[in-house]
Write a structure and sequence with these properties.
Elements (H helix, E strand, L loop, with lengths): L2 H24 L1 E3 L2 E2 L4 H11 L1 H11 L1 H7 L6 H25 L8 H32 L4 H26 L2 H8 L15
Antiparallel strand pairs: 1-2
Helix pairs in contact: 1-2, 1-3, 2-3, 2-5, 2-7, 3-5, 4-5, 5-6, 6-7
Length: about 200
Amino acid sequence: MEAKNIAFIALMGALGNILFLFSYHAANIVQGVAVDLSHIPTFIAAIYGGPTVGLITGLLVGVLPGIYFGPLGSGSWLGLIGLPIGKALTGLTAGLLYKHLNVGGRSSRSLITIPLVLASYIPECLFTIFYFTVLLPVFIGGGGLGLLVVILPKAWAEIVFMGVFMGALVGNQGFNMFISSFLKGYGDRRSGAPR
């Protein structure tokens, strides 16, 4: 992996954790549930850098949420493992979908990006259900359906917002040029990256 890609991953990971801290403290809904906009850098990394960059960025973006909802919350050590895995699934899926559907090479990439972002969250959503209904009860003794009733609608609302936001970003030539300064191979038709 190129040094520029590693720097880009580190930058997106840091930005994701900063966005989590900001949104967590600005919009804490109830104890253990807060607005989380940390996936914006995950989607940027996955769409522009591909599945591997999206996966690694997702893992990094999940660190602070894992700490807050794990050891500092009700998830104990399991949250520190589970949240980064869930976010990595979204990064991997977004990168794979964007690359294999060659969304970056289409004239309507902004519109296609919105449902792609929504579809990218499905594996993490299923993992979240598994985490709260199986992993937490078995390993920690908490969880259950009660929290999912609050967490999943909130998460889908965030993903819809991020889908629209990402649609606007991939259609913005200035942003695309900015990203090109970070990533090697940006704009390569085979990568599916926006141009």
